[in-house]
Amino acid sequence: MAKAFKYGLKGITGYLEPAERDLLRGLLDDVISMLEQDVRENEDPLAALIGLDMDVKQPSDRALLRLLPNVMKDDDGGSLEFRQLTERSVRENKIGALKAAAMGLDKDDLVLTPESATRWSMALNDVRLVLAERLDIRDEADAEHIHSMQDWSQAEDVESYLALVYNFTTWLQESLVQAMMAARQAKS
Amino acid sequence: MSPSVAYGTDIDERTKAAEQSATDVLSAPDIPWNLVIWNDPVNLMSYVSFVFQSYFGYSESKAHKLMMEVHKKGRSIVAHGSKEQVEQHAVAMHGFGLWATVEKAANGNETPGKGGRQRG
User: Fold this and answer.
1) Is A100 on the interface with B (CB under 8 A)?
2) Per-residue pLDDT for B14 more than 70?
């Protein structure tokens, strides 16, 4: 079984079983492929270089839209303009964090600095946001319902399996954030 | 906002702006844009509070208060500044996976932590 992250002399440490690492790596890879865009033909290379994307659209996939939300509530035009300027770099940052987390899973023991822990928590959070969309978690009641499924013998279909995976990532994230808080307090 | 304007500031200035907004966020109520964080059932309360502390440099109690406001009222204004500043914060918040939007401040009476008016 995985051990909760904790803060100690070596920094922020955690431990995951090989099967748990495979599971997490798969989830991280899924989110990476969601965020990676096909290289477009005829794209203006200068625009690409400085991070502009004039062809960007609001994502039609709900999970992707949750990762890359509109920046204005009631202004689609303003939100789109913002996407053109920023979405590419937000995607790239997310992919960077997800890849770093996936690579860190090559060893049983996870040893993180406060900085790498923050990136790890961002990656894990994105995984949770995507799983939550797939599980149709819309409000606190949905979240409660999913959270109540803790017994792996209940995993009889895709949804209940996903729910258990989601709860595992929630537990892992909570322990990581607690360790990050402890590291912050120790520093100050 | 046009691309040339958005990318016109050089890196030093942008860093300065980020530092400034981290400390001056609360002392400039007359600047007309707000950064709003919306509630969602997924982000952990501890994580949201951690982001407010580590990114904005808010104290633990202030971060907790703002997080609880997001949780209970559905949204909270967590910073304000120029449009460019709050947009920069929004990019950072989206990086953390928080649901952030920017909006014009209604009349300057709203301050972070005092609750926001629901729009639309």
Assistant:
1) no
2) no
Contact state of A73 with B119 under an 8 Å Cβ cutoff: yes
Q: What is the ipTM of this complex?
A: 0.92
CATH topology of domain B44-108: Ribosomal Protein L30; Chain: A, (3.30.1390)
Q: Does A27 touch chain B (CB under 8 A)?
A: no
| Segments making up each domain of chain A, as ranges | 3-39+95-187
Domain boundaries, chain B: 44-108
Which among A71, A73, A139 has the least Cβ separation from residue B87? Answer: A71
Q: Residue B91 is nearest to which of A86, A129, A184, comparing CB atoms? A: A86
Average pLDDT, stretch B49-66? 97
Please state the three-class secondary structure of B54-71 as a single string. Answer: HHHCCCHHHHHHHHHHHH
